[in-house]
Amino acid sequence: MKKLRCARLKFDNSLKLNEIPAFRAALSNLYPEKSVWQHHHLDNKKLLYHYPLIQHKVYQNKLYIIALEGGADIVLNLIASPNQTVQVYDHSFQLNVESVSLFHHVCQAWDKVFVYKIYNWMALNSENYQKFQNTELLREKVAMLEKLMTAHIMAFIQHLQCNIYDRVFVGIHRIHAQKWIKYKKIDFLTFDVTFETNISLPDYIGLGKASSVGFGMVKRVKKTSLENLSEEKYNTYPETIYISSQN
After folding, report:
1. d(CA 209, CA 215)
2. Domain tally for the chain?
């Protein structure tokens, strides 16, 4: 069992998902000495391949920054200097912190399951995208996504050294949406999915590709919301939509 140090900042600022990379770049310009945490680059231009400890999110049109372990200390330094102005594309705004939450999250396997919804999850790389598209049966598509979700949760566990040796269980309740979203000038297929797992995850963290810039955001589902899900989990499949982007 490991207790993860977590910091969650909610801002009284509105932002769009496709604006998050520009916002992150603006923060790096304000705090260049901390850019290694923002972009995961070393001085010799090598990449730091690890789970992002600082993540930027948009939920219900509000801007959030989520930080874990050492990233929490850096994020708290960001609010030590209030009234900072950031430039995002052609508009600038002053950062207004609405609330700050500091807490420890117990990361472990349990003998029960927790239900989450994940938003704009980049589940597929180029190789398994073709396999997914060539899979005709819906239950096989769901099984493939469950396997990928398990791998992404295991990556989170391993990179944060949670020392979990129990089997990670994942079961998908529903695929709510399937969307094409442009990121770094490339279209990615993303999913909104409700799933259950025996691993406790902090709210608002990201799983999968581009989790530092808002993709794959996880939010715990309340029991009342879960009861509203149809009992017929997989009988229908969401229509694919395309979301344009400036990036």
Report:
1. 7
2. 2
